Amino acid sequence: MSPSTILLLIIVYFGILFYISHFVSKKDSGNEAFFRANKNSKWYLVAFGMIGTALSGVTFISVPGEVGAPSGEQFKYFQFVLGNAIGFIIIAKILLPLYYRMNLTSIYGYIEQRLGTYSYKTAASIFLISRTIGSSFRLYLVVIVLQRFVFDFYKVPFAVTVLISLGLIFAYTYRGGLKTIIITDTLQTFFLVSSVFLTIYFICDSLQLNVFEAFEEVKNSNYSKVFFFEDFVSSKFHFIKQILGGIFVTIAMVGLDQDLMQKNLSCATIGEAQKNMFTFTGIFVLINIFFLSVGALLYIYADKNGVAVPLDLVTGKPRTDLLFPEIAFHHLALIPSVVFLLGLTAATFATTDSALTALTTSFCVDFLGMDKVENSNKPNIVRTRHFIHIGFSFLMFLVIVFFNSINDSSVVGMIFRVASYTYGPLLGLYCFGLFLKSKTVKDKLVPIICLLSPAITYFISENSKVLFFGYVFDNELIIINGLITFAGLLLISKPAIGETRF
Hints:
Elements: H1 3-25, H2 31-36, H3 43-66, H4 77-102, H5 109-115, H6 117-151, H7 158-173, H8 178-206, H9 211-219, H10 239-255, H11 258-264, H12 270-305, H13 323-330, H14 334-367, H15 379-406, H16 411-422, H17 424-435, E1 439-441, H18 446-462, H19 464-467, H20 477-491, E2 493-495
Antiparallel strand pairs: 1-2
Helix pairs in contact: 1-7, 1-8, 1-14, 3-6, 3-8, 3-12, 3-14, 4-10, 4-12, 5-6, 6-7, 6-14, 6-15, 6-16, 7-15, 8-12, 8-14, 11-14, 13-14, 14-15, 16-20, 17-20, 18-20
């Protein structure tokens, strides 16, 4: 597919999103619609749209790419996905009822009522930092694909490509916010899911395999090992590590994250929100099986057709993230290329538009108190929200440009690694609040604890082989971070005055 064809498709795609945004927000672009979609979202639209938000371009490209990575990852990611599923159920049964009972706009309002103002601002700040970095990494992955296969052809600098991408996302989200996102994410998830199934069909067709033959080919290949029980101490892929990491990363990155919880809280009742989470969990597990299958088929196709894993233009090392776009754009026919492009674009922008909305919501509510203003739809207040939206767009731009100058690894691994450090303190704060109801904390000391915890966690991770007889941490590192935060809060705790309701 030529660069001009790809560019034309992207323009048409965003044209559709702009039309939807205009239609949805023309009657109501106030803060209540932006923050909570007027509290009347349909649970089935939220459930389906959350798939696109949760998966992102990282799952679309990096997960299939890792199947054949030199480190021998194969289908080990599915162990992590099973942990994710358990985490989603815990969120639905424990955290969602809490948030609905308190009628929260920002989920960090719980920390304010339970532990105090400094703790509250700390929790909200952790989210702002974590989500900005995580969403920037996710968008970065797609921008490098667009840069390599489109904008390099037109000699457009990488920074300008990033700016264009964020400018387009800002343009269709700044008015309607969550109310717009619920609709656009449903459409984008449709493109994403359709793309996965059609990609499998087209690759099977290129390999002259039917569905059953493809299943046997994947099962008998060197890429299909799912469960890893060997060498618990030194292997990052061990089943226990992946399951535990999946559970706690999900609780922190979803249940304690304003982005995905904001969608849940836009449902009218707790029953609808839980129905949304259970439905979403089933679809999430199923769709990841297909993503891993795509990865195995891509490597089988590459082996049979002599396609090498593309090299990173900066480091010169093989970059598995680029294998999927390389095959889609240069080795398959036009229609499979279009299908891939639609899926990739949908997966990435469904994540980034949602993140920008959540970041803006958190800052407006947690730091400016817009939810407490008597008439939050006044023009000057809405105008302030617009400026904050612009500010976070620019901040993500800076993070992506910086990350591009230093990155030489798989983005999916980097995202969860960073999450272990940034979301760990949130895990500790909420665990303390939920499980030690007879205690509170010396509120002013909480920011110090939440700064020290990631630093200690990093030291432990870097020296774990020496400290723990060769043990190597993976995603379960977030548990250590949460425990250190919890222990630090315990050290600065004091008896709670009166009855703790939450």
